[in-house]
Amino acid sequence: MPKVRKIKAVLFDxxxxxxxxxxxxxxxxxxxxxxxxxxxxxxxxxxxxxxQRELDVEEMARLGENYWIKWxxxxxxxxGIKENREFLARKIDELWWEYAELTAYPDVQxxxxxxxxxxxxxxxxxxGTEKDFKQILQRLSxxxxxxxxxxxxxxxxxxxxxEIFLHALARLHVKPEEAIFVGDSFEYDxxxxxxxxxxxxxxxxxxxxxxxxxxxxxxxxxxxxx
Length: 226
Description:
This protein is of the alpha/beta class. It is built from nine helices and eight strands.
């Protein structure tokens, strides 16, 4: 029988896995409203959906935080907002986390504390920018749990590219077969991690139950893997 390697590290996605916010179109609505611009929520949701369909992880990795300025400009253009468009695009980026109603999932603190007590190395691999993930972790007092946090600027690659996963593992001095990756996206997290040689686990809180996928509904279920 092949030797089963001991798990030395658990890496996590961030948004949708460890933390959550209200819907993005609702955040846009609130920030625009704070600047005296009232747009129906369904119109914002439609514009956001169109932007989402054009999501380009290659461009995101290349531009870093400037990607989201461009994203906001496209949103505002789709909404027909012409006045102060550049200013508003930057304000949306600047104020995002103040209006996002950011919270950690209720199973996060317990899971991270348990993994820490087992001396498991922990990290985050996110398609977010350094400016964003630092704000998120500081606001939720989660910073001290993680040995590394890798965002799109780190190696100019974004998930699902295997390079971003391997970059994180190299910083932890851990081999792919010694690491678990947990995320909520089958395409970006599960498949990206699998192709990089990590053990992928899908966090499936809604119980969708994808076939032939290692999945958990509660983060504390991770403890049985380590």
